[in-house]
Design goal:
Blueprint: E1 2-7, H1 14-17, H2 20-27, E2 32-37, E3 50-51, E4 61-62, H3 64-74, E5 86-97, H4 100-106, E6 111-115, H5 124-129, E7 133-136, H6 146-157, H7 167-175, E8 185-189, E9 192-195, H8 205-214
Parallel strand pairs: 1-2, 1-6, 5-6, 5-7
Antiparallel strand pairs: 3-4, 8-9
């Protein structure tokens, strides 16, 4: 599956994409993640990707033109009648909340194009004429769409066959039962003793499954 991320701060993604499960998935060719600098699609010598909002107000707004040029460059195949299931997503506070069902739905696409806003937002014409949908990761304000893009990337990738070592890892997240590991008894001091629930040490898998469902 391919992800194309549009941002004015491409280096933000460097470390995350080179670690852990995302790194392994890229090495195994399960994920093809490409980060694009919106400034590369500007037409002025200063590579200006933002401007003041019409009507006044604080802050700057990402411009429509470079984003449109970037999308057009990334979707040239559409003019060649190539069958390719893709979705363009803009991150915004008013968007649909990202949840497990949304992640599973998006995992069925061949490619996702993620537009990361900055400053006071993105020219509204991007939402109206370019993006297929808007997504939010919560009711709080961030400096830009880069963190939401990483959250969506991993949430979607976890649904891809071969991304996780065991399918149980995905299922356990859905259940969110308490997890314990060694030592079975830990003494933090002052006579206290923190113990693992005895049922997890019993070896009775039927009882363990029941306990996890009830926890």
């Amino acid at each position: 599956m391919r992800f194309d991320i549009l941002t004015i701060f491409p280096k933000i993604f460097d470390s995350y994409l080179r670690e852990s499960l995302i790194k392994r998935a890229r090495e195994k060719k399960l994920l093809d993640v490409r980060v694009h600098d919106i400034r590369d699609f500007t037409s002025d010598r200063h590579r200006k990707a933002d401007d003041r909002p019409f009507g006044g107000g604080p802050g700057m707004v990402l411009k429509l033109e470079p984003i449109h040029k970037a999308i057009r460059a990334l979707t040239k195949h559409k003019t060649q009648n190539i069958k390719y299931k893709e979705r363009t997503i803009l991150f915004s506070l008013r968007g649909k909340k990202l949840d497990g069902r949304t992640a599973a739905r998006l995992a069925k696409y061949d490619r996702l194009i993620l537009i990361c806003g900055r400053y006071e937002g993105v020219d509204e014409r991007v939402a109206r004429h370019i993006a297929d949908e808007e997504i939010s990761i919560g009711d709080y304000v961030l400096s830009g769409g880069e963190l939401p893009a990483l959250v969506l990337l991993e949430a979607v990738a976890r649904n891809l066959p071969g991304f996780l070592g065991k399918i149980e890892s995905l299922e356990s997240l859905r259940g969110s039962h308490p997890a314990y590991t060694r030592p079975p008894v830990y003494s933090p001091g002052r006579g206290a003793s923190w113990k693992v629930p005895p049922v997890l040490l019993s070896g009775d898998h039927k009882k363990i499954r029941k306990w996890r469902k009830q926890s």
